[in-house]
């Protein structure tokens, strides 16, 4: 619901754009004091008064609400973009400060559920990264953010949070719990580009966990499923990583050198294509070892 202050600011902005005085706007509708109080956010007029004010300003009554929604969308979208950028650059202290400020802002402004959920997610994850809260507390709060939709098909953001939840568990040696969540995420079938990218991340995360636990055959199987899915959705962004994990498994299993080398070279091809020079050098160390 729009607040007194927000409605007053919009009315004042339109009135000034139209070069109308408060007295002219009030004429025949209400007293000038009401307009003054409205613009200062001190009163919320009745619906009939708002109807006549809107008509005199040359807008429909829903314009006030649509304008606020559009301005809020610009604000929330830019805030999310900033948090995504900071997270990608691993500037977690700044993410924490920004999300902490937004959590305070939520006490005075009504935001969409998706934005509120996003801010809380990024707050707890960044707080855990910089040591403000324990990983157990982070897991608890992320669980709380996604446990509200047990009967519905989860939305993409719920699935993204679950992936992060599994990552936190994996980082803290809770491997079986993490695997269970990753496997659950792979069961969903949502035909959107964003979900496809998330699913490829999950294939990679689960594969890495199997490798870490020396479950090499499961790792190879999962990575191959991920490569097959990459072809299906025409997204090759994760193929290099998945090929590398298969090569690593064969290396650890002392499989045929030619076969192992083939997978390392395929992974190197994708890394070179994507300009991932650090990954290329990493693969080259294994290739050199195979030559010895």
TrEMBL record:
- Family matches, as PROSITE patterns: HTH_CROC1
What domain of life? Bacteria
Q: Which InterPro entries match?
A: Cro/C1-type_HTH, HTH-type_regulator_Rgg, Lambda_DNA-bd_dom_sf, PlcR_TPR, TPR-like_helical_dom_sf
- Name the chain's protein: HTH cro/C1-type domain-containing protein
Q: Which residues form the HTH cro/C1-type domain?
A: 11-64
Its source organism is Sutcliffiella cohnii
Q: Which Gene3D superfamilies does this UniProt record tie to the protein?
A: Tetratricopeptide repeat domain
Transmembrane region(s): none
Entry-linked SUPFAM superfamilies: lambda repressor-like DNA-binding domains (SSF47413), TPR-like (SSF48452)
- State a single Gene Ontology molecular function: DNA binding
